[in-house]
């Protein structure tokens, strides 16, 4: 039975197969673009790092904010204390665009994660060219060779790589990579169901040296507080902010939370 993820990946791989741009030329161009601020460095700062996401809609929730102004949202995110941004560039399923990331980059110097479905080496180059600090690799979407190839290419281009997992087997595959940033997604992309215990279950298997981000399904301060106390370095939050009538205050309420670094006492 086909899943949400299957349909999205089929579309992205089909588009990649039609892309006749030269990888060598794209890589040369990407290498010429200066590296922006590091997502890893932002996540390693004390406290709970907030990655504030800009997305217009999602397959499961539909349209999130029909009157949103990208520039104002980015400035509000920065004013609220976001450590980094996540910008959806998938157009067909999430209503994003590469232009959204380019615009966001023009508004701020803080790290930006290109949130998309990376299925080709040219996707990695594109992220660097448009001004991203990091790319997303979804373990459920890629085989081991693709994970290794895209991860190494990202590192060679000066990009951080957030490797996203949903279960124990995917986690074990991710941890074989060289020093990944680990994203634990509470939303299963096959069904789009959210399990609020997913991070709490998996983080016990993660070495304390690995930088971790809790993703998806975070819609209240209490949920973020629980994740912070579980020892994540950061949280990636979109819907809560996109629907908020006071974005600055919503971001501030999370960025002020303290995080328990695994292997240390809770910050007080």
The structural domain count equals 1
Overall helicity:
25-40%
Number of discrete helical segments: 12
Low-confidence runs: 264-268
What structural class do helix, strand and pairing data support? alpha/beta
Using the coordinates above, name the CATH class: Alpha Beta
**The CATH topology:** TIM Barrel
Order of helices and strands: HHHEEEHEHEHEHEHEHEHEHH
* Apparent shape: globular
Rg result: 17 Å
Give the N-terminus to C-terminus distance in angstroms: 49 Å
Strand content: 15-25%
Question: In words, what does this structure look like?
Answer:
The protein is globular. The C terminus is likely disordered. The chain has a single domain, classed as Aldolase class I (TIM Barrel), CATH 3.20.20.70. It has twelve helices and ten strands. The longest helix has 14 residues. The protein is an alpha/beta fold and 268 residues long. The chain starts with a helix and ends in a 13-residue tail after the last helix.
Produce the secondary structure layout.
Elements (H helix, E strand, L loop, with lengths): L3 H14 L5 H10 L6 H5 L5 E6 L2 E2 L3 E2 L6 H10 L4 E5 L9 H10 L4 E4 L5 H9 L4 E5 L5 H13 L3 E6 L2 H7 L6 E5 L12 H5 L9 E4 L5 H10 L3 E4 L1 H4 L4 H9 L13
Parallel strand pairs: 1-4, 1-10, 4-5, 5-6, 6-7, 7-8, 8-9, 9-10
Antiparallel strand pairs: 2-3
Helix pairs in contact: 2-6, 4-5, 4-12, 6-7
